[in-house]
Amino acid sequence: MANPSRPVFLVSDSTGITVETLGQSLLHQFPELAFEVHVLRYVNDAQKARAARDRIRAAGEESGLRPIVFSTLIEAEPRAILAESGALCLDPFATFLPALQQELHARPHPAAGRTHGVIDDDDYTARIEAVNFALQNDDGVSTRHYPEADVVLVGVSRTGKTPTCLYLALHYGLRAANHPLAEEDLDGERLPAELRPFRDKLFGLTIAPERLHRIRSQRRPGSDYASLARCRHEVGQAEAILRAAGVPLLDTTSMSVEEIATTIIPNVEERGHVK
């Protein structure tokens, strides 16, 4: 019989972005253990804190394991109520703010949701414009705006180009376009003509054929598009074309979107395309 999953609650008085990122990062350090993760957002008053407390306590009783709680609650009362759950409560603000206060000789002024507020209007506007750019230049619809791009991701279908473009736009304000290598492109031995003027902006994404086969099979099961033979052919041809053109190439098989994006950024900066 498999060991039960330990209940984990990521509790926030706002969007949950901060606590979810931190909590998941810490849990990933224990890959041999099983966790059942719940995200509780907008726990910003006593009533909601009591509901969260009761849910956490019930999960512990059902699993027979002490729950783990990561929380970023600012107000003292909801935090105290949450502590009544009997869980191991870990609060990064309580851990780090006192040390920062002592070092900076200043008192913090906590406010719920402040970690993700709009601090710089120009930066926020640039990121929104970058997201619009990524959406308008998705899937090789047109190369008309490629002169404005910071990077153009190239690869066969389903290698992670679209989500990576959106991540680069939303988190870094980069104007990222993506261009799939179609069947007719792969029949040749050179980079498609429409991409050659932008060679210094191109970045190739590749993937193991077996992984590509599984991804495509979820989308179009039993199709030629998803067949392992076609996946092997497309990946092999795409890699040969990109390498011959001197395009940087990244294997995304076991990488998250975040890892792909942060690997691409230094290359973009080195080429000097970041505005």
Characterize the structure shown:
The protein has 275 residues and is of the alpha/beta class. The chain has ten helices and eight strands. The protein has two domains: 111 residues, Rossmann fold, CATH 3.40.50; 151 residues, Rossmann fold (3-Layer(aba) Sandwich), CATH 3.40.50. The strands form two sheets. A four-stranded parallel β-sheet has the order 2-1-3-4, sandwiched between helices. A four-stranded parallel β-sheet has the order 6-5-7-8, with helices on both faces. Helix 6 packs across helix 10. The termini are far apart.
Question: Top keywords for this entry?
Answer:
alpha/beta; Rossmann fold
Estimate the strand proportion. 5-15%
Side by side, the strands of the main sheet go 2-1-3-4
Which stretches of 5+ consecutive residues score pLDDT under 50?
none
Tally of helical segments: 10
Largest sheet composition? 4 strands, parallel
SSE run: EHEHEHEHHEHEHEHHEH
The name of the CATH architecture of the largest domain is 3-Layer(aba) Sandwich
- Separation of the first and last Cα atoms: 56 Å
- Tally of distinct domains: 2
Decide which structural class fits the backbone. Answer: alpha/beta
Count of beta strands: 8
> What Rg do the Cα atoms give?
23 Å
CATH topology of the largest domain: Rossmann fold
